[in-house]
């Protein structure tokens, strides 16, 4: 492994010690929120798209992510990017803070339209929150992805809109 460091101690550390270090870090949404707020590499992250979807459609979502990645797009998908910290059984207020931060870091939202995602309170929350950011929102249907048609349409329909969206997502 080539290490680009002039300092011999730093070079030794990066080459021999760092790759084998293991940390016992609690893998909770609270810990991830802390890392995002205090770690430079987490604070400066940006994403081309935040994918709002139902996890029940994960196989098709993975196909969409692969397609967008091949086009050079950086995609945020919670169960991929923050898989160690955002677990379905650990939902809490910190989960919400992390998702809001990731939406703040995203240039646009891509909603995958399916029966599952239309029924999801989390998707409705994400759509409402992203709308308040004033950033572009796009929609693609699950059926289109399955048929290898990846054209994104501006998301203008507001079926999800709810002025009280902040109240009903918290547990």
From TrEMBL:
Q: Which PROSITE patterns match?
A: TIR
Q: Where is the TIR domain?
A: 45-171
Instruction: Output the InterPro entries linked to this UniProt entry.
Output: ThsB__TIR-like_domain (IPR015032), TIR_dom (IPR000157), Toll_tir_struct_dom_sf (IPR035897)
Q: Which GO terms describe its biological process?
A: signal transduction
Concerning Pfam families, the annotation shows: ThsB_TIR
Its recorded name reads: TIR domain-containing protein
Q: Which organism is it from?
A: Dubosiella newyorkensis
């Amino acid at each position: 492994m080539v290490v680009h460091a002039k300092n011999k101690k730093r070079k030794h550390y990066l080459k021999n010690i760092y790759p084998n270090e293991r940390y016992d870090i609690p893998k909770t949404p609270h810990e991830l929120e802390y890392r995002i707020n205090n770690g430079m590499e987490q604070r400066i992250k940006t994403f081309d798209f935040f994918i709002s979807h139902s996890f029940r459609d994960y196989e098709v979502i993975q196909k969409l992510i692969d397609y967008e990645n091949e086009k050079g797009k950086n995609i945020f998908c919670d169960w991929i990017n923050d898989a160690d910290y955002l677990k379905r059984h650990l939902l809490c207020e910190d989960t919400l803070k992390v998702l809001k931060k990731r939406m703040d870091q995203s240039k646009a939202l891509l909603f995958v339209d399916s029966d599952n995602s239309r029924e999801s309170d989390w998707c409705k929350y994400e759509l409402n929150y992203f709308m308040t950011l004033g950033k572009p929102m796009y929609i693609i249907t699950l059926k289109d992805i399955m048929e290898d048609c990846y054209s994104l349409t501006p998301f203008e329909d507001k079926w999800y809109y709810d002025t009280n969206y902040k109240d009903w997502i918290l547990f």
